[in-house]
Amino acid sequence: METYQTLSISDNIRHVYKRRLLPPFLYLVILTVFWLTAPVSALVFPRFVSSPVSIRELHNSRFTYITTTLTSLHFTGYTQKYGGYTNGYYYYTFQDGQCILVLLAPDSCEEGLSDIEEITVRVRIMRNFDDYDSLTASIAKDLNWTASGIRSQVPDYLLSEPGFNKLASWALLGFFFLSGIYALVHLLLCTACIFIPDLSPACRHLGRYGSAKELLALAEEELAAAPQLATEELYITEHFLIILADSQTSIVPVQEIIWIYKHSALHKLLWYHFSISDTLHITARKHLYLQYPDHMKSDIDDIINYLCKANPDILSGFSEKNRIQAQHKMKNH
């Protein structure tokens, strides 16, 4: 047993949520860095460029995703296929004195229009794309040119509309924004619990049994007057079981507890058994379930014995009989 020191439930709630602020904050910082340094922002807000801008210059400056207006596009007669599905149609146009290859989505080119006078598309600038060698060789054969002659006139860049709209890109964006929203909400909730402890789950769970504010004040008063039983992080007062750990804060009225038991788990690495951990399981009325892991076996035994004396109706120990009785009591309350 530990020597009792004056504690505050509200202060412990603040301590718990201050510790929980760090992971979402660091995650949001990482997302911000990705937004600024990776082409994530360009997928959402692609830079608009006019046709005279050098594609090579854009690629070298890391503007991979752009919106641009292309004019005088001509169908090459070749398509890009994946598993029998036509992913795009290859076109060419002349830009800044060079022949530029463009891959348009089937809907944009109406599945292979021979000529397109003007089109505004969002594209990904791709260098050394997979079809470059085979495509230029086929075009050279059609024109009775050499492949090297064609390649000297056609740079190895592709403006790919399907490349911009890849499922993987949108999946990445979805994960980016959804995880970012989750982290932000988590950060805001933690901040709210720090400034207003009454909003924490511990107080909201306490509200199942009456006025959360009044019950919290009573628990604070009884804890300040010295608990009847105290371990390192768990305290029993006249009316409450209180857990004040680094990772959680819990307050349960003793008279509302239905079932309590401990569960021991053996931890091992390969054939070596290196520790046994004990977890306290608590079931209370109004469908409240708590777990208090990694506590000393002797402390848990003392807690269970004391609670059973304080409330003789508590079911003690894990058994199928106690599980069924606990479920029955839960249904009746």
Give an overview in words.
This protein is α+β, with helices and mostly antiparallel strands. The protein is built from eleven helices and 14 strands. The chain has helices at about 10-35, 40-45, 55-60, 130-140, 145-155, 160-165, 165-195, 200-205, 210-225, 295-310, 320-330, and strands at about 45-50, 65-80, 85-95, 100-105, 115-125, 155-160, 230, 235, 240-245, 250-255, 255-270, 270-285, 290-295, 315. Strands 2-3-4-6-5 form a five-stranded mixed β-barrel. Strands 7-8-9-10 form a four-stranded antiparallel sheet, with helices on both faces. Strand 3 (about 85-95) and strand 4 (about 100-105) form a beta hairpin. The longest helix is centred in the first third of the chain and has 29 residues, at about 10-35. The model is unreliable at about 1-5 (pLDDT under 50).
